[in-house]
């Protein structure tokens, strides 16, 4: 893409005791694009997300934000930069209504009193701009469907006006119609100019909404693919290891040719 990446990972490595979870991982996220992060179980997806979100900082490597190296040692660092993460468990409070969940921990006050009117106004405005259909912002979250709960969690992440949103398996437990609602919302995040990292096991969904697919295998990059020009079979082959890493193969070819040039 022509624009500079808003978020770039350079040589990210992470070890847990004797286990090397990530090795020299590279990833770029540009404004207004959806990058799917895929890989088999144990490929390192969750570890990489935690490194970006500040939950489990990397041991080695650099995180760049708008082209400049930054330190992300804790979740607050990531949030301050403009990185929002929506985890699979959503972390919603069932007994609170939609407004209460959207502003949980960031309540608006007028003096010492909660400004319920302003929070409700902003909630309605946010949900409207994202075309999120909720019966009422004053019903308990427990009464919402799985898809509606997921959209509320995503909407909450946008209150801080982030530039990058990480979605961890947002459709894992949803039905067909609810999944469609969430995928529509992902596309609207792109339209708003946000960079989106989508972690998913569903290749059909990945192909439907992603611009690029970054494959992790055994904690390493195993290819980055443009969705428009790559078949689902090619991506699955990279995930399973049925094909070589294209980057590694190219590097090997160059190294093999170098001695011949020097002679």
UniProtKB/TrEMBL annotation:
Presence of the UniProt keyword ATP-binding in the record: yes
Matches recorded under Pfam families: ABC_tran
Domain called ABC transporter: residue spans: 7-243
Annotated keywords: ATP-binding, Nucleotide-binding
InterPro entries: AAA+_ATPase (IPR003593), ABC_carbohydrate_import_ATPase (IPR050107), ABC_transporter-like_ATP-bd (IPR003439), P-loop_NTPase (IPR027417)
Gene3D superfamilies named among the record's database cross-references: P-loop containing nucleotide triphosphate hydrolases
SMART domains associated with the record: AAA
One GO MF term attached to the UniProt entry: ATP binding
PANTHER family: CARBOHYDRATE TRANSPORT ATP-BINDING PROTEIN MG119-RELATED (PTHR43790), SUGAR ABC TRANSPORTER ATP-BINDING PROTEIN (PTHR43790:SF8)
Name listed for the protein in its UniProt record: ATP-binding cassette domain-containing protein
Species, as recorded: Streptomyces albiaxialis
């Amino acid at each position: 893409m022509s624009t500079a990446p808003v978020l770039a990972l350079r040589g990210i490595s992470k070890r847990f005791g004797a286990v090397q979870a990530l090795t020299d991982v590279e990833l770029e996220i540009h404004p207004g694009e959806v990058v799917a992060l895929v890989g088999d179980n144990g490929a390192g997806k969750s570890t990489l997300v935690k490194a970006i979100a500040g939950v489990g900082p990397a041991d080695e490597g650099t995180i760049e934000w708008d082209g400049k190296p930054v330190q992300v040692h804790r979740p607050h660092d990531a949030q301050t930069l403009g990185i929002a993460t929506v985890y699979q468990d959503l972390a919603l409070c069932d007994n609170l209504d939609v407004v209460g969940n959207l502003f949980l921990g960031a309540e608006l006050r007028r003096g010492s009193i909660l400004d319920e009117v302003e929070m409700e106004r902003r909630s309605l405005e946010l949900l409207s701009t994202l075309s999120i259909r909720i019966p009422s912002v004053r019903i308990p979250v427990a009464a919402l469907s799985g898809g509606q709960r997921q959209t509320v969690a995503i909407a909450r992440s946008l209150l801080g006006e982030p530039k990058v949103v990480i979605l961890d398996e947002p459709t894992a437990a949803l039905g067909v119609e609810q999944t469609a609602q969430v995928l529509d919302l992902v596309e609207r995040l792109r339209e708003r100019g946000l960079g989106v990292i989508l972690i998913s096991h569903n290749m059909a969904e990945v192909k439907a909404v992603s611009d690029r697919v970054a494959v992790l295998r055994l904690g390493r990059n195993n290819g980055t693919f443009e969705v428009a020009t790559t078949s689902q079979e090619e991506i699955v082959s990279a995930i399973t290891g049925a094909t070589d890493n294209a980057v590694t193969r190219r590097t090997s070819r160059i190294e093999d040719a170098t001695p011949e040039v020097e002679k």
